[in-house]
C-alpha cells in the first residue's frame, strides 16, 4: 500500500482493481494497456499514489501511459510526478510530462 500520502485508506476492492489495471499497463499487448489506461483515467486522482510507485517501471510504454494518466487526472498533486518524469530516459515520457506541465501553467 502506498504510504505517506496523507489520503484516507481506500476500499480493498478498489485497491485491487487499481493494482490490476497498473499490472495491465506493463503487458506487451497494446489492447491490455489501452484498456487499463482508460480505466485508470476514469478512476481519477485516487490512483495517483499507486501510479507514483509504478512510474519507475522498466517498460517505457508503461511509463508513458502512467504520465498520460497523471497529466489528465493528477491535478496539482500530480505535478511533482510530472516534474520527476522530465528526467526519464525515454524522450516520449519527457515530452508528455513537459507538455502537461506547460498546459497546467496556462
Walk me through the topology:
Blueprint: H1 12-24, H2 30-43, H3 48-54, H4 60-73, H5 79-85, H6 91-105
Helix pairs in contact: 1-2, 2-4, 4-6, 5-6
Describe this structure in words.
The protein is mostly helical. Helices cover 66% and strands 0% of the residues. It contains six helices and no strands. Helix 4 runs parallel beside helix 6.
Class derived from helix and strand content: mainly alpha
Q: Strand-and-helix sequence, N→C?
A: HHHHHH
Largest β sheet strand count, sense and barrel closure:
none
**Rounded to an integer, what's the Rg over CA atoms?**
13 Å
Helical content, roughly? Answer: 55-70%
Whole-number mean pLDDT: 91
**DSSP, total strands:** 0
Pick out the low-confidence regions.
none
**Morphology call:** globular
Beta content: under 5%
Number of helices: 6
Terminal CA distance? 34 Å
Quick rundown:
This protein is mainly α and 106 residues long. Helix content is 66%, strand content 0%. The chain is built from 6 helices and no strands.
Structural features:
mainly alpha, single chain, 0% strand, 106 residues
